[in-house]
Amino acid sequence: MPEAPSKMPRIMSIANQKGGVGKTTTAINLAAALAELGFKVLVVDLDPQGNASTGLGIGSTSREITTYDLLVDDVDLGKAIQQTATENLSIIPATTDLSSADMELFSNDNRSSLLKTALRSQALENMGFDYVLVDCPPSLSLLTVNAMVASDSVLVPLQSEFFALEGLSQLMLTIREVRQTANPNLRIEGVVLTMYDQRNNLSQMVDEDAREHLGELVFETRIPRNVRVSEAPSFAQPVLAYDTNSKGATAYRDLAKEIRSRHTKAT
Q1: d(CA 20, CA 65)
Q2: CATH superfamily label, 10-256
Q3: What is the rounded average pLDDT for all residues in the chain?
């Protein structure tokens, strides 16, 4: 039987320069939901805090080769990838070493495209991944730009709180600049409302404002404020494994299906 042809996975950055919006939570749980649907998924932890690595069960002592090594030392991609406890889900972990990467890479002429060089390679193509989700740091730094240059699209988690839309303009401007200078095919995957409380008037106002200003970019799926989602990382699990029937787990499954539906319609 002939081998299946290799293919480049869809690479998606999960970004918002504002911290505490559910970015890493979305990276972990969307990855787990896509894996549950049978897709082979790779998470690239590009945040020096390394929370995605912790949340997927990769302890600090197990992070021997990381995204820092991938960017700064040009290590072999295959050596950096670790399998998680979730079937079909792997990760390239991060440590605090990554916090110095901006300074160390500043003199490199190719500093904005190092992640692209690592990910858009024959090596990754041959591994059979369907999705690569890049968890970006909460800043518009060189690391975030690297993620956008390497990606097909950017998924934006938006917390359902006051001033939620204010920081979005700078992120959109950065996406536009990357599109004009380094990655003309970069698009916005969509905006997902996180920490949503349907009983709260403010959540509803943010929802309405987001849909008024961004239209169809906003996903129908809303991620609820859910204690199980908050607890899961401390048990080093996605919420889909920690409490599979929780509202949070259901919402991330719905988001994965909505993303898949959009991709199917686009092809």
Answers
A1: 27
A2: P-loop containing nucleotide triphosphate hydrolases (3.40.50.300)
A3: 92
3-state secondary structure the chain: CCCCCCCCCEEEEECCCCCCCCHHHHHHHHHHHHHHCCCCEEEEECCCCCHHHHHCCCCHHHCCCCHHHHHHCCCCHHHHCEECCCCCEEEECCCHHHHHHHHHHCCCCCCCCHHHHHHCCHHHHCCCCCEEEEECCCCCCHHHHHHHHHCCEEEEEEECCCCCCCCHHHHHHHHHHHHHHCCCCCEEEEEEEEEECCCCHHHHHHHHHHHHHHHHHEEEEEEECCHHHHHHHHHCCCHHHHCCCCHHHHHHHHHHHHHHHHHHHHC
Q: CB atoms < 10 A from the CB of 207, how many?
A: 18
Determine contact, residues 193/158, Cβ cutoff 8 Å: yes
Q: Is the pLDDT of residue 1 over 50?
A: no
Cα 60 to chain centroid, rounded = 20
Min mean pLDDT across 151-165, 222-236, 248-262 is at 151-165
Sequence spans of domains, the chain: 10-256
Closest CA to 129 of 188, 89, 75, 100: 89
Task: Check: pTM over 0.90? Answer yes or no.
Answer: yes
Give the model's pLDDT for residue 49: 95
- Please answer whether residues 41 and 131 qualify as being in contact, where contact means their C-beta atoms are separated by less than 8 angstroms: yes
Q: How many CA atoms lie within 13 A of 75 on its CB side?
A: 14
User: For residue 42, what pLDDT is reported?
Assistant: 98
Tokens, residue 233? 């990382």
